[in-house]
Amino acid sequence: MPFVHPIIFWIGAACVSAPIIIHLLNRRRFRLRHWAAMQFLLDSLRRNRRRLRIEEMILLAMRCLAVLLLALAIARFTGCAATSVLPGMSGPRSTVYILDNSYSMLQKSAALSLFENARHDLAERIRRTSRSEKVAVLMGAGDDGQAPLFDLNYVAEPVSLAARLESLDASDGRLALATALGRAGALLANEAGARQVVVLTDCRKIDLTAPAAQSPLQKAFAALRKSGVNVEVLDYGQESRKNLTIESIELLDRFAVANVPFNVAVTVRNNGTTNIENVALTPRMVLPGQGDRTVVLPVQVIASLESGQSTRVIFEAASRSPGSAVVTVEAAGDDLQADNRAHLALDIRKVTRVLIVDGNTDPTDRTESESFFLSKVLDPRGDGAFGVRAEVISSDTLGGANFADYDAVALLDVADFPSSVETGPATRPAVVYPQLKALEEYVRGGGGLIIFTGGHINLDFYNGPFYAGGVGLLPYRVGPHKGRPDQSDTYVRLAPSSIANHNIMQAFTRFAAEGSDVTSLVRFFAFTPAEEPHGVVLPPDIKAPQVLAAFADPQNSPAVITRRFGLGEVVLFCTTASKRWNDWPSDEVGTYAVIAHETVKFVARSASQNLTARVGHPIDYTLAADLLDAQATLKTPRFPADDLVTLVARRQGAAAGHLSYAATDGAGIYWLELVSPDRSIKKVLFARNIDPAEGDLACGGRTALEAALGSDDFAYAAKAAGGNEPLAAAAAKKEYWLLAALAALVLLAGETFLGQKFGHYAGRKAAAERQP
Q1: Contacts of 638-647 spanning 24+ positions with Cβ under 8 A
Q2: What is the rounded distance in angstroms from the CA atom of residue 587 to the CA atom of residue 594?
Q3: How far apart are CA 340 and CA 243, in angstroms?
Q4: Are 688 and 664 in contact (CB under 8 A)?
Q5: Phi, psi of 420 (to 5 degrees)
Q6: pLDDT at res. 533
Q7: Measured between alpha carbons, how far is 385 from 370 in angstroms, rounded to an integer?
Q8: Euclidean distance between CA atoms 570 and 450, whole angstroms
Q9: pLDDT of 624-634, one tens digit each?
Q10: DSSP per-residue string spanning 377-416
Q11: 272 CB-near residues (< 8 Å, 6+ apart)
């Protein structure tokens, strides 16, 4: 109907009959009596009867029309484009409603959330929808492939559709307004008659002011207006006084190892308008490999957090057993609970596997081998009980090593790599190093490499293919060693001022922060000088080397160097790992052992599976060869409301396969269960977190909306500020009730004037006719 209040209109239309009834009643309330004096008047009336009837009809029509206009005004007439009652009308009105179901709409407003208020308003509008009106309902948080909740059609069962709306829940995704407007335009493209799009949203500034969002929004809005579609926005947004958002959760270490504490960092932001004190963060860890139990970790309290401020909190956790786990951190409740929780999925390793290649072995006395001290500090008992499993091989067997079986590789005084000669019909013979190429691919893919120099290194190999003009694995060119290893009275130390604030060097920096210089406890009798490269153009995946420590010689020669190589890390120590060139392994405070472990932590390959990501990021899990025939089922965070999902492996050759799941639209923990033919079970947990940007509840209002759409040609109502415009109503400039009210007043004034004039004229005529 073309009215905001159609019932009032029909009541007013019925009242149009009142003047007619009054007129008829007035004609019948007298009785005829014949007397002589009236004959003169009756003769006059007979002569003027036609004129009097016309005057009565004019006054009666004006009174009826005035009543009808008052009914139009009170019912708030909005136009006739939405009705097809009369021939020649343009057709029924078509309306597409876009309901913002992003999780920011879960903000509490009194007892209800913004989403519940918007959902209820839309349901009420649907209940009042005329059978001659076409309606579609779209969800605002979704993509182009998302089906409408209700496709554009006549509403045959408004009560049923309203009930569906009332049962909706908000999603864990962000508002995609440009996409929703584009989908609405596509639905309305072939519709005749009046067309409109009504958006029920919270108009968050974060959704409207992002440069990447404004251009698509403006294009989508301009396309709607160009095609004649009216746009109305109902803004439910309101500021939040208390709103915490967990912006990120991350593992500070590159991996987690069973029985070894690991650190998890959580960043919390106060997105509210007031300062918050005593913020309690509750961490817990889900361990499916240990009876699917949950371990509650000690609560951390943030003493104070100012409005707009972020802070970082570090938790320490540990697991007794390897396998999959999820660490969940939750903040205390506030206006928007959805962004107070974050999950971190981990693959807890049994051990960190390190391959140590010894280039200077002593078959008669193992303690004199180059690898003795390093292997002992990493794996004292040789069983991985302390988190690292060190396997030592001689450089003579380097050609048969499979680097992919290890998390890190350590080269100790290795002279060079095995080589071969390649010849071709059109090329000259060339020396190639297959294992060096394999090592480069291993590090570029995320593996770690530790290099200790020594007296056996082949400078031609190191400065040749190993350095590769500055783009190889070796960070710096190296020269012949300096010093006298056999004379302990001549030595250099590390320069205290050169120690970088880096995880590897924290054994020195920690003591320096306490006022102690432990570099004086370590002597280097010989070292390998390294030359900083100049003018080397590095590819994007290789970073410039960084010196973490330097020797206190006149040239300040680099002692410890690191560089990023692809996804992996390389660390170069310009000395030996043994006591041949230094007395570092016997350091009284244990800096050698600490730096050895920190170096392994820093370079070791991180988990290859993408276990933690944002909502909407698909799950892609690589199956090991022994799990290719396993039955795979996935339990989503909404289980048991959602059924178990059966996944089928996508084979890639005979030895590898992938499991994929794309519908990760809910935040929380996804449980993948793999049941092998022998009935053994493996569980892998994945975590999906909401986009923390949506937790910024700052309101944009009409100003930000105009800037985002690039126009003010839309109707707008601030619902949170008391705006009670019904969903079908346009702005005041779109309604005609004011004009109807003015027309009714003008008509009543005209009726009064004509009534007096007609009565006065009739009186004068009768008096004139009575005169002789």
Answers
A1: 638/666, 638/668, 639/671, 647/672
A2: 11
A3: 9
A4: yes
A5: -145, 165
A6: 85
A7: 23
A8: 6
A9: 878 888 899 99
A10: HH-TTSS-TTSEEEEEEEGGGGGG--GGG-SEEEEES---
A11: 240, 241, 242, 243, 244, 307, 334, 335
